Amino acid sequence: MEMKTIVKKRTVAEDMERENGSEDCETPTGLNIRDETENGAESVAQGTLKPGSPIRPLVSEEEVRKLAERLYGIIVLEMCELDSYDDRNFMIHADSFVKNPILKSVSTNGYVMKIANSLDSSDESFFYAQNEIMLHLNKRGIKCPVPMQNIYGKYHSVEKLGQFNHVVRLLEYIPGKVFHGVPHPDKLFYQAGQFIARIDSALKSIDKEMVAKRQSIWMMENFPKLKDFLYVIKDEHHKDIVEQVLDAFQRRVIPNINEYEQGVIYGDFNEHNIIVNKKSSNVKEYEITGIIDFGDVCYSRYVFELAIAMAYMILEANDINTGGLVIAGYSMIRLIPLHEKEILRVAIAARLCQSLVMGLYTATVDASNQYILSSQTRGWNVLEALWAESDKDLLERWNSIAEEYLTHSLPLSTTTTSSQRFTSIVFAECLKDFVNHQELRLVLQNAAMILTQKNGTQQIRKTPIITPTVIAAL
């Protein structure tokens, strides 16, 4: 049995060769890195926590067993603690032979009990939002951890542990491996682009007010705050690049921030939060099947969501051209406006800067975490290569890669023209993953826009319903 961890955000510096979990509960240490970075750095950005404040839950394994039984009726058969810095997370397997008076059924895959730090626990509404979003996505065919109702009929509770209150939740475990731990053919990066766009499409029907007030140092809107952490960069060349990116972001993105489409976004589509499983038709090939860790959901800009996904996929592949594959997949669900494409390089560079600088910051506040610096070289090299490109050249290359991938991703007749092939693939891909009629209509509308642009028509067709007549007219 494979035991998966709920992995928090990793910095670029983290390149631990881990899979989704293991029988001996050996878990990726990225969990404590993200917690330290988020709570240490975010406290500086928001003025909510001073470094060194005791916010980590003080709880023993015996107390966790009692919480599991009292709140969820679970008699713990097997348990191990997962790495975390400011939170406490425990992998739990319930004794299925003991009748549970609270849970309707006991998951054979196990659970993760998450005990949040006292700082995050002070914003109980954010946990309500996370729970609602996970349930919402599951109903729409996007696999993510399902929160369990406790004895009070709630998806979380606030428990007094030691001197502080902490939010306690129980999430059902998702079987699989993380994206980082498997081979990466082009198709998997294409799927990554599609998957994050599907998530954002599904989140359109979520009440934005649940996360509208959420702020974090990791939100792209707050990238200018990174200047407060530049003192951790000792390499002057690296610092110069970050300062250039900060300047470009301030000049090109911030003044036009209200022009970019907004919505509820996932906010952390990285290689350690994406769950993959082997395809039944080919045991050697993996496909994306789920997503974990909703600690960064927020109301933000869709272009930032795409930039975050592209940044982490480029890093995972160690190849800037991978961005074109992500764009190919993403474009099948949501059309990327030209004014958003024009800032992608700057936004991706901004995310890389966030991850690199906050990784260095973490190392300065916790000497025991020096191992996170082991792969800083790769991250800085990717950032330097990206920043050396021009917006125009890079965007043209990404667009070319996206079109090339689409026109060769399905086997069609050798007599099919290039235009016919592109048209067939666009519609085939759009139809493949729709969840309901509303989403089907959305992706078909998007396909019409893509094909209209492809045919050189300047006016984008926007039709409320795609009919055979409309499709034939394309």
UniProtKB/TrEMBL annotation:
<dbReference type="InterPro" id="IPR050249">
    <property type="entry name" value="Pseudomonas-type_ThrB"/>
</dbReference>
<dbReference type="GO" id="GO:0047992">
    <property type="term" value="F:hydroxylysine kinase activity"/>
</dbReference>
<protein>
    <recommendedName>
        <fullName>Hydroxylysine kinase</fullName>
        <ecNumber>2.7.1.81</ecNumber>
    </recommendedName>
</protein>
<dbReference type="Pfam" id="PF01636">
    <property type="entry name" value="APH"/>
</dbReference>
<keyword id="KW-0963">Cytoplasm</keyword>
<keyword id="KW-0808">Transferase</keyword>
<comment type="function">
    <text>Catalyzes the GTP-dependent phosphorylation of 5-hydroxy-L-lysine.</text>
</comment>
<dbReference type="InterPro" id="IPR011009">
    <property type="entry name" value="Kinase-like_dom_sf"/>
</dbReference>
<comment type="similarity">
    <text>Belongs to the aminoglycoside phosphotransferase family.</text>
</comment>
<feature type="compositionally biased region" description="Basic and acidic residues">
    <location>
        <begin position="1"/>
        <end position="21"/>
    </location>
</feature>
<dbReference type="GO" id="GO:0005737">
    <property type="term" value="C:cytoplasm"/>
</dbReference>
<feature type="region of interest" description="Disordered">
    <location>
        <begin position="1"/>
        <end position="55"/>
    </location>
</feature>
<keyword id="KW-0418">Kinase</keyword>
<dbReference type="InterPro" id="IPR002575">
    <property type="entry name" value="Aminoglycoside_PTrfase"/>
</dbReference>
<feature type="domain" description="Aminoglycoside phosphotransferase">
    <location>
        <begin position="110"/>
        <end position="314"/>
    </location>
</feature>
